[in-house]
Design a protein that fits this description.
This protein is of the alpha/beta class. About 25% of the residues lie in helices and about 25% in strands. A nine-stranded mixed β-sheet has the order 7-6-5-4-3-2-1-8-9. It is globular. The N and C termini lie far apart (about 40 Å). The mean pLDDT is about 95. Bound molecules: zinc ion (ZN). Zinc ion binds next to loops.
Length: about 200
């Protein structure tokens, strides 16, 4: 079985608060020893996905998963595997329906950090929980791991990088090849593992 390692939560300059250009992300994956996949999950926009995928397409051993991190009244939701935004208004139910209908994967983003959904996530049918977020304190990540167990959902991890030094500090191991559809299917089936990470300092 092929195994890939992916940083599933990255912000590019298409997010107002990130300094990581699509080029920087692609170059980091090119240079990295074992993380060859990243998801572009900008705040409320998918504008950076196409640009980044286009740049990455020149290199056959790396892969960009298109995605988005959507702000809702209840908390942030990451959708993996979409190059389109869900229709507004952005309700949790509406976003999850959109993900399901489009074969995308819905993730409760950093549930126990600021902008996280917390226990409310239990009321909805998500595909996965972000159990390790690189920009969250370890207590928040621990609580997220407990939530994933309680909800019976796979756990995923991402750096939530907003500057280049944070890229690929956190990753998910996925039993899939270098292919977006294979990765999304594996995520839904729970063929994932999040290694134990040492905590890192919080960047905001
Ligand atoms: Zn984020």
């Amino acid at each position: 079985m092929t195994l890939i390692r992916a940083d599933l939560h990255v912000h590019t300059t298409f997010s107002d608060d990130s300094s990581i250009t699509p080029k920087t992300l692609v170059e980091r994956l090119m240079a990295h020893n074992f993380i060859k996949v990243a998801a572009v999950t900008d705040h409320d926009t998918v504008a950076g996905c196409g640009v980044t995928r286009q740049l990455a397409s020149a290199y056959p051993d790396i892969l960009i998963i298109p995605g988005v991190e959507i702000s809702t009244q209840q908390g942030d939701i990451v959708i993996l595997g979409t190059e389109e935004l869900p229709p507004k208004p952005w309700t949790v139910e509406g976003i999850l329906d959109f993900a399901r209908e489009n074969g995308a994967v819905s993730v409760v983003a950093h549930p126990y950090r600021e902008w996280g959904m917390g226990d409310l996530a239990k009321n909805y049918k998500f595909d996965a929980v972000e159990v390790y977020n690189g920009a969250s304190p370890s207590a928040s990540n621990k609580a997220a791991q407990d939530l994933a167990k309680l909800m019976g959902l796979p756990g995923v991890a991402g750096s939530d990088a907003h500057q280049s030094s944070e890229l690929c500090t956190v990753y998910t191991e996925i039993q899939a090849g270098l292919d977006v559809d294979e990765i999304l299917t594996a995520l839904k089936k729970g063929l994932v593992k999040v290694p134990p990470f040492a905590g890192r300092s919080i960047h905001f």
